[in-house]
Amino acid sequence: MTLRNTVIKGDLILGEAVGEGDVHLEGVTVEGTTFVNGGGENSIYFNDSVLATVIVNKNTGAVRIVAQGSTQVIEVQLETPTRVVEGELDEGASGFEDIVVAEAMQSLGDYQVRLEGEFDTINSRAANIRIELSEQTDIRTLILNAATAVLGEGTIGTAEINAEGSTLSQRPQNVVLDIDGSVRIGNEEIIESYSDETTTTIRSIEADQGSLSLDLANFVAGLTADDFAVTAKVNGQSYELENVQYNSSQQRFTLFPGFPCSSDRLCSYPLDRWSAQQVFLL
Questions:
Q1: What is the pLDDT of residue 262?
Q2: 147: closest CA among 166, 160, 133?
Q3: CA–CA separation, 11 and 33 (whole Å)
Q4: Interatomic CA distance for residues 205 and 228, integer angstroms
Q5: Among 195, 215, 236, which residue terminates a domain?
Q6: Are 111 and 132 in contact (CB under 8 A)?
Q7: Which domain of life is it from (predicted)?
Q8: Which of 211, 205, 213, 264 is nearest to 241 (CA)?
Protein backbone atom coordinates (compact mmCIF):
# COMPACT_ATOMS: atom_id res chain seq x y z
CA MET A 1 0.00 0.00 0.00
CA THR A 2 1.33 3.46 -0.92
CA LEU A 3 0.04 6.88 0.18
CA ARG A 4 1.49 9.87 -1.68
CA ASN A 5 1.56 13.67 -1.54
CA THR A 6 -1.18 14.42 0.93
CA VAL A 7 -1.73 16.33 4.17
CA ILE A 8 -3.73 14.61 6.90
CA LYS A 9 -5.09 17.09 9.43
CA GLY A 10 -6.14 14.41 11.90
CA ASP A 11 -4.84 10.95 12.75
CA LEU A 12 -3.62 8.19 10.45
CA ILE A 13 -4.26 4.57 11.42
CA LEU A 14 -2.31 1.77 9.78
CA GLY A 15 -4.57 -0.98 11.07
CA GLU A 16 -4.26 -4.70 11.65
CA ALA A 17 -5.65 -5.29 8.15
CA VAL A 18 -2.21 -4.36 6.83
CA GLY A 19 -1.12 -7.74 8.18
CA GLU A 20 2.52 -8.52 7.37
CA GLY A 21 2.49 -6.35 4.26
CA ASP A 22 4.41 -3.18 3.39
CA VAL A 23 3.19 0.41 3.71
CA HIS A 24 4.89 3.37 1.98
CA LEU A 25 4.20 7.00 2.93
CA GLU A 26 5.75 9.29 0.31
CA GLY A 27 5.51 13.06 0.66
CA VAL A 28 2.88 12.75 3.40
CA THR A 29 2.30 15.16 6.31
CA VAL A 30 0.33 13.90 9.32
CA GLU A 31 -0.55 16.65 11.77
CA GLY A 32 -2.19 14.27 14.23
CA THR A 33 -0.96 10.91 15.50
CA THR A 34 0.07 8.02 13.26
CA PHE A 35 -0.89 4.65 14.74
CA VAL A 36 1.04 1.62 13.47
CA ASN A 37 -1.05 -1.43 14.39
CA GLY A 38 0.03 -3.69 11.52
CA GLY A 39 2.89 -4.46 9.17
CA GLY A 40 5.72 -6.96 8.96
CA GLU A 41 9.44 -7.21 9.63
CA ASN A 42 10.24 -5.01 6.59
CA SER A 43 7.10 -3.00 6.47
CA ILE A 44 6.55 0.70 7.22
CA TYR A 45 8.49 3.26 5.15
CA PHE A 46 8.31 7.04 5.69
CA ASN A 47 9.88 8.81 2.71
CA ASP A 48 10.04 12.64 2.44
CA SER A 49 7.29 12.81 5.06
CA VAL A 50 6.59 14.86 8.19
CA LEU A 51 4.87 13.24 11.17
CA ALA A 52 4.26 14.64 14.63
CA THR A 53 3.84 11.46 16.68
CA VAL A 54 4.02 7.80 15.72
CA ILE A 55 2.70 5.14 18.12
CA VAL A 56 3.63 1.52 17.38
CA ASN A 57 1.34 -1.11 18.90
CA LYS A 58 1.16 -4.35 16.93
CA ASN A 59 -0.31 -7.27 18.83
CA THR A 60 1.34 -10.02 16.76
CA GLY A 61 5.08 -9.96 16.15
CA ALA A 62 7.58 -7.18 15.59
CA VAL A 63 7.38 -4.38 13.06
CA ARG A 64 10.04 -2.33 11.28
CA ILE A 65 9.73 1.42 10.65
CA VAL A 66 12.12 3.19 8.29
CA ALA A 67 12.80 6.92 7.74
CA GLN A 68 14.15 7.94 4.32
CA GLY A 69 14.78 11.10 2.30
CA SER A 70 13.82 14.33 4.08
CA THR A 71 11.57 12.62 6.64
CA GLN A 72 11.08 14.22 10.06
CA VAL A 73 9.29 12.37 12.87
CA ILE A 74 9.17 14.37 16.10
CA GLU A 75 8.42 11.50 18.48
CA VAL A 76 8.00 7.74 18.25
CA GLN A 77 6.29 5.84 21.07
CA LEU A 78 7.02 2.12 21.09
CA GLU A 79 4.48 -0.08 22.88
CA THR A 80 5.41 -3.36 21.17
CA PRO A 81 8.69 -4.79 19.75
CA THR A 82 10.00 -2.56 16.96
CA ARG A 83 13.02 -2.15 14.75
CA VAL A 84 13.64 1.57 14.15
CA VAL A 85 15.83 2.32 11.13
CA GLU A 86 17.09 5.54 9.59
CA GLY A 87 17.79 4.57 6.00
CA GLU A 88 19.05 6.79 3.19
CA LEU A 89 18.29 10.18 4.74
CA ASP A 90 19.03 13.46 2.97
CA GLU A 91 21.82 15.59 4.40
CA GLY A 92 20.42 17.59 7.32
CA ALA A 93 17.25 15.50 7.61
CA SER A 94 16.38 14.65 11.22
CA GLY A 95 14.62 11.33 10.64
CA PHE A 96 13.34 9.92 13.94
CA GLU A 97 14.18 12.50 16.61
CA ASP A 98 12.97 11.22 19.99
CA ILE A 99 12.10 7.61 20.83
CA VAL A 100 10.02 6.69 23.89
CA VAL A 101 9.89 3.05 24.98
CA ALA A 102 6.52 2.98 26.74
CA GLU A 103 5.75 1.19 29.99
CA ALA A 104 3.42 -1.09 28.03
CA MET A 105 6.37 -2.73 26.26
CA GLN A 106 6.55 -6.41 27.24
CA SER A 107 9.67 -8.49 27.79
CA LEU A 108 9.09 -11.07 25.04
CA GLY A 109 11.18 -12.43 22.16
CA ASP A 110 14.85 -11.96 21.34
CA TYR A 111 14.66 -8.18 21.60
CA GLN A 112 12.14 -5.44 22.29
CA VAL A 113 13.79 -2.49 20.51
CA ARG A 114 16.47 -2.46 17.82
CA LEU A 115 17.89 0.91 16.76
CA GLU A 116 19.83 1.82 13.63
CA GLY A 117 20.55 5.53 13.06
CA GLU A 118 21.24 8.81 14.85
CA PHE A 119 18.78 9.79 17.56
CA ASP A 120 18.48 12.85 19.80
CA THR A 121 16.82 11.12 22.75
CA ILE A 122 15.93 7.55 23.70
CA ASN A 123 13.70 7.47 26.79
CA SER A 124 13.01 4.01 28.19
CA ARG A 125 10.17 3.70 30.71
CA ALA A 126 9.64 -0.05 30.38
CA ALA A 127 11.09 -2.47 32.93
CA ASN A 128 13.23 -5.50 32.12
CA ILE A 129 13.55 -5.02 28.37
CA ARG A 130 16.45 -5.15 25.92
CA ILE A 131 17.48 -2.37 23.56
CA GLU A 132 19.92 -3.39 20.84
CA LEU A 133 22.10 -0.81 19.09
CA SER A 134 23.69 -1.39 15.71
CA GLU A 135 27.35 -0.46 15.30
CA GLN A 136 26.35 2.69 13.35
CA THR A 137 23.84 3.89 15.95
CA ASP A 138 24.56 7.21 17.67
CA ILE A 139 22.40 8.39 20.58
CA ARG A 140 22.85 11.88 21.99
CA THR A 141 20.94 11.21 25.25
CA LEU A 142 19.79 7.86 26.63
CA ILE A 143 17.39 8.05 29.59
CA LEU A 144 16.69 4.88 31.56
CA ASN A 145 13.74 5.27 33.93
CA ALA A 146 13.43 1.52 34.52
CA ALA A 147 15.79 -1.47 34.54
CA THR A 148 17.00 -1.93 30.95
CA ALA A 149 19.69 -3.93 29.18
CA VAL A 150 21.34 -1.89 26.41
CA LEU A 151 23.30 -4.14 24.04
CA GLY A 152 25.38 -3.65 20.92
CA GLU A 153 28.24 -1.45 19.78
CA GLY A 154 26.50 1.87 19.16
CA THR A 155 27.71 5.20 20.58
CA ILE A 156 25.99 6.93 23.51
CA GLY A 157 26.73 10.56 24.37
CA THR A 158 25.06 10.88 27.78
CA ALA A 159 23.28 8.14 29.73
CA GLU A 160 20.91 9.32 32.46
CA ILE A 161 20.29 6.47 34.90
CA ASN A 162 17.16 6.95 37.02
CA ALA A 163 16.53 3.36 38.13
CA GLU A 164 18.45 0.42 39.58
CA GLY A 165 19.22 -2.73 37.62
CA SER A 166 20.30 -1.37 34.22
CA THR A 167 23.27 -2.66 32.23
CA LEU A 168 25.09 -1.22 29.22
CA SER A 169 27.55 -3.12 27.07
CA GLN A 170 29.30 0.05 25.79
CA ARG A 171 30.70 2.91 27.88
CA PRO A 172 28.86 6.22 27.31
CA GLN A 173 30.88 9.43 27.11
CA ASN A 174 28.98 10.73 30.15
CA VAL A 175 26.88 9.09 32.86
CA VAL A 176 24.40 10.97 35.06
CA LEU A 177 23.64 8.65 37.96
CA ASP A 178 20.55 10.08 39.65
CA ILE A 179 19.99 7.19 42.06
CA ASP A 180 21.48 5.93 45.32
CA GLY A 181 22.82 2.88 43.57
CA SER A 182 24.86 1.79 40.59
CA VAL A 183 24.79 0.81 36.92
CA ARG A 184 26.85 -1.94 35.29
CA ILE A 185 28.75 -0.83 32.18
CA GLY A 186 30.62 -3.69 30.55
CA ASN A 187 32.35 -5.44 33.44
CA GLU A 188 32.49 -2.32 35.62
CA GLU A 189 30.11 -1.25 38.37
CA ILE A 190 29.62 2.55 38.20
CA ILE A 191 28.56 4.16 41.48
CA GLU A 192 28.77 7.87 40.61
CA SER A 193 28.35 10.23 37.68
CA TYR A 194 31.29 10.83 35.36
CA SER A 195 32.03 12.88 32.26
CA ASP A 196 34.72 12.93 29.60
CA GLU A 197 34.64 16.74 29.59
CA THR A 198 35.94 18.89 32.45
CA THR A 199 34.83 22.31 31.13
CA THR A 200 31.69 23.61 29.50
CA THR A 201 29.83 26.79 28.53
CA ILE A 202 26.29 27.96 29.19
CA ARG A 203 24.19 28.02 26.03
CA SER A 204 20.99 29.37 27.56
CA ILE A 205 19.15 29.93 30.83
CA GLU A 206 15.47 29.42 31.62
CA ALA A 207 14.29 31.37 34.66
CA ASP A 208 11.36 30.54 36.92
CA GLN A 209 10.34 31.73 40.37
CA GLY A 210 13.10 30.62 42.68
CA SER A 211 15.08 28.61 40.14
CA LEU A 212 17.30 28.73 37.07
CA SER A 213 17.63 25.88 34.58
CA LEU A 214 20.84 25.83 32.54
CA ASP A 215 21.44 24.41 29.09
CA LEU A 216 25.12 23.49 29.13
CA ALA A 217 27.07 22.78 25.97
CA ASN A 218 28.11 19.46 27.48
CA PHE A 219 27.64 17.60 30.75
CA VAL A 220 30.36 17.94 33.38
CA ALA A 221 30.11 15.65 36.39
CA GLY A 222 30.56 16.97 39.92
CA LEU A 223 29.67 20.62 39.38
CA THR A 224 28.49 22.46 42.51
CA ALA A 225 27.14 25.94 43.24
CA ASP A 226 30.71 27.00 44.05
CA ASP A 227 31.63 26.56 40.37
CA PHE A 228 29.24 29.37 39.38
CA ALA A 229 28.71 33.04 40.14
CA VAL A 230 25.03 34.01 40.23
CA THR A 231 23.78 37.61 40.50
CA ALA A 232 20.38 39.25 40.34
CA LYS A 233 19.05 42.74 39.68
CA VAL A 234 15.63 44.04 40.69
CA ASN A 235 14.61 47.50 39.49
CA GLY A 236 18.23 48.26 38.70
CA GLN A 237 19.53 47.29 42.14
CA SER A 238 21.91 44.34 42.61
CA TYR A 239 21.18 41.77 45.32
CA GLU A 240 23.17 38.96 46.83
CA LEU A 241 21.61 35.52 46.70
CA GLU A 242 21.52 33.36 49.80
CA ASN A 243 21.75 29.56 50.08
CA VAL A 244 22.19 28.97 46.34
CA GLN A 245 21.81 25.24 45.66
CA TYR A 246 22.72 23.44 42.43
CA ASN A 247 21.54 20.03 41.23
CA SER A 248 24.21 18.79 38.81
CA SER A 249 22.12 16.02 37.24
CA GLN A 250 19.20 18.39 36.56
CA GLN A 251 21.46 21.38 35.74
CA ARG A 252 19.20 23.48 37.93
CA PHE A 253 19.72 26.16 40.60
CA THR A 254 17.40 26.74 43.54
CA LEU A 255 17.66 30.38 44.59
CA PHE A 256 16.78 32.24 47.77
CA PRO A 257 16.88 36.03 47.22
CA GLY A 258 18.57 38.32 49.70
CA PHE A 259 16.21 41.21 49.10
CA PRO A 260 13.20 41.98 51.36
CA CYS A 261 10.05 39.85 51.15
CA SER A 262 6.66 40.49 52.68
CA SER A 263 6.28 36.88 53.86
CA ASP A 264 8.36 33.96 55.05
CA ARG A 265 7.77 32.20 51.75
CA LEU A 266 9.88 32.72 48.65
CA CYS A 267 8.80 36.10 47.35
CA SER A 268 7.95 36.99 43.77
CA TYR A 269 10.27 39.13 41.72
CA PRO A 270 10.63 40.18 38.07
CA LEU A 271 12.40 37.29 36.36
CA ASP A 272 13.09 39.25 33.22
CA ARG A 273 16.02 40.72 35.15
CA TRP A 274 17.89 37.43 34.84
CA SER A 275 20.13 37.00 31.84
CA ALA A 276 22.83 34.66 30.60
CA GLN A 277 25.42 37.32 31.37
CA GLN A 278 24.57 37.05 35.05
CA VAL A 279 25.57 33.41 35.45
CA PHE A 280 29.16 32.42 34.78
CA LEU A 281 31.28 29.33 35.09
CA LEU A 282 34.35 30.13 37.19
A1: 38
A2: 166
A3: 5
A4: 13
A5: 195
A6: yes
A7: Bacteria
A8: 211
Please provide the DSSP assignment of 162-183 as one string. Answer: -STT-EESS--SEEEE-SSS-E
For residue range 16-75, list pLDDT tens digits in order. 877 667 899 999 999 999 999 988 777 899 999 999 999 999 887 789 999 999 999 999
**184 shares its domain with 244:** no
Which residue, 150, 100, 94, 149, is CA-closest to 117? 94
Question: Cα(87)–Cα(116) distance, rounded to whole angstroms?
Answer: 8
Could you give the 3-state DSSP secondary structure of residue 71? coil
Same domain, 166 and 235: no
- Secondary structure in 3-state letters for 94-115: CEEEEEEECCCCCCCCCCCEEE
Q: How far apart are CA 111 and CA 118, in angstroms?
A: 19
| 191 and 173 Cβ atoms separated by less than 8 Å | no
- Which secondary structure element, helix H or strand E, spans residue 44, and what is its range? strand 44-47
